[in-house]
Amino acid sequence: MEYDTGLEHKFARFGDGIQVDDNAVIQGYASVFGEADQGGDIVQKGAYAASIKALESKGARVKMLWQHDPAQPIGVWDEVREDTRGLWVKGRLLESTQKGREAAALIGAGAIDGLSIGYRTTKASKTDKGQRLLSELELWEVSLVTFPMLPSARVAAKGAHAEFDDAWRSIAAVLNDARQELARR
């Protein structure tokens, strides 16, 4: 079964200790594959591939917005890609804008800790539990938001070296898994 709906939003939590580095760089997972969000949707691996490819072929970018407001862009996503875990984004808050400065300050203070994707569902099916399996999405934007829906997605400050970024993502995933296991006990 295919769904052809309007623009939807899916939220993802930054995680604890989010920081913005001196260049206002943020990065992390805007979506994690295979995990049900609080709305019961599960994004499948490869769901963003066609959309990312189409944007790249046009020289276009996924937009970075404040609270899904198209009138409030606050930065740019320099990198948007799928990996084995999910949709990973890396971008810069534009501190030359008032809202970009505010976002950096709010993240630094821990007042904002969420990401949310704005997308249109292109292909989806239902599970026997009534959940939607999202297999193809048209990604429009990734916003900084107040209330996230997918707690396992993370954003972190840019590390000094790219190889350390991967190591920190792996460490964060292990710690998150341990936290979830402790919560189940």
TrEMBL record:
The lineage of its organism: Bacteria, Pseudomonadati, Pseudomonadota, Alphaproteobacteria, Rhodobacterales. InterPro entries: Peptidase_S78_dom (IPR054613), Prohead_protease (IPR006433). Keywords: Hydrolase, Protease, Viral release from host cell. GO terms for molecular function: peptidase activity. It comes from the Bacteria. GO terms for biological process: proteolysis. It comes from Aliisedimentitalea scapharcae. The keyword Cell membrane does not apply. Residues 22-158 form the Prohead serine protease domain. The keyword Nucleotidyltransferase does not apply. This is HK97 family phage prohead protease.
